[in-house]
Predict the structure of protein acetyllysine N-acetyltransferase.
Amino acid sequence: MAHTALNDDEIQEYYDSTDELDKKIKKLANFIRDAKHFIVYTGAGISTSAGINDFRGPNGVWTARARGFVPPPSKVRNPEPTLTHMALVELMRNGYLKLLVSQNCDGLHLKSGIPTNRIAELHGNSNCEACAKCGKVYYRQTHVNQYEHKTWLTGNTCTVPNCYGRLRCTTVAFTQSMPDVCLDRAVKESQICDLSLCMGTSMRVSPACKLPCMNLKSGQKMVIINLQKTPYDDQCALRIYARCDEVMSMVMKELNLTIPQYTD
């Protein structure tokens, strides 16, 4: 996995000045108000404030491995959705956000209240297991334990009458293919998107990194919020260097929306 880490220059983090950030927030809020088909694409960076490590940040899992260190463990055993997660829920409730496309498998988007039919989880969900026989999906509040690595079985059995199938993890390993249904949905929606907002992603994992810019030739605007530079920065209508929670807090105020508190 170490070969996927960034070099020292790519790891460098940047921050917009207060004045720059204020101007960019107003611009982003206007983009959201005017959009007809707004899609958000999320990566590991939106979950770091929940105590979950990212991959390519200065303290990321792959960064540590590339430097010969053991990656630090996540800080919490049962993480809760962040301010950013909850802001996305409210944007969806108010009709702004049409679809959420995520590379994260931490389960926090569904835990936050995003409906299953409004999200494409490209890399699966660590809180979800599915029957290998009939396909029924089970959503849990905590991570599904995997006891047999080669088959990704969880040790649980399907409850559908007369099925008795064995349940398996739904997460996608780094070298595995993404689920066709999720990827197809993400591609179809991305082709008609007029505003894409990429948050907490290095934009380096294909095909996920190509989705947010699929409709640029038709006038789509792309916005990236990330502390590190990405290969797609020059294609942005707006590039923001700030932490996701800070940006979303400011954007929601600009839109006169209240971010809900997470409750179990």
